[in-house]
Amino acid sequence: MVFLSVINWARCRGPDEFWRKRRIFRLAAHYIGRRRNCYSIAVRNVHRALVYATKARKLKKEDMKSLWDVRITAACEQHNITLFSLREGLDRANIMLDRKSLSDLASWEPKTFEALAAVAKYKLETDRFIDGQDKCHPTGINLNLKDVMLEAWLNEKKK
């Protein structure tokens, strides 16, 4: 491009404007009507959508945490232990599992979760820990570590 005067050079925004608008139009490609074709309308809608997407990322994390806690709590009630006691017992037994992995074990591998609950309960009993956090006692089956652990499994394998 050859500019004969400084005024024409200043008025030309160059290729940067094309690519800036193209980026907005690509983000608005799935919209309908003028929201897709008119730049001034598209840029408003794209910015609003990006704000919603930013907020949704935080909300998704919170939703997943609450879902994992619900799954773990339900599995704990089956094994007669509270969520607080389970977490405390696993921490004292140096078993470092996060919410997601505990939730996966609770839903997909219930025998493994039962063993973890028994280990946590045994560790709390040996440490003489009293759960003062939860006043109500869960209704479930009492676990003994000896019932859950490997002896029965090993005896089955030998046969």
State the main characteristics.
159 residues, c-terminal domain of poly(a) binding protein, 2 domains, 9 helices
CATH topology of the largest domain: c-terminal domain of poly(a) binding protein
By secondary-structure content and strand pairing, the structural class works out as mainly alpha
Beta-strand residue percentage: under 5%
Tell me which CATH architecture of the largest domain applies here: Orthogonal Bundle
Radius of gyration: 30 Å
Distance between the termini: 87 Å
Which residue ranges are poorly predicted, with pLDDT under 50 across at least 5 consecutive positions?
none
Q: Mind describing the biggest β-sheet? A: none
Count of helical regions: 9
- How many β-strand runs? 0
What is the total domain count? 2
What is the element string, with H for helices and E for strands? HHHHHHHHH
Outline, from the CA principal axes? rod-shaped
Helix content: over 70%
The CATH superfamily title of the largest domain: Ribosomal protein L20, C-terminal domain
The CATH class designation of the largest domain is: Mainly Alpha
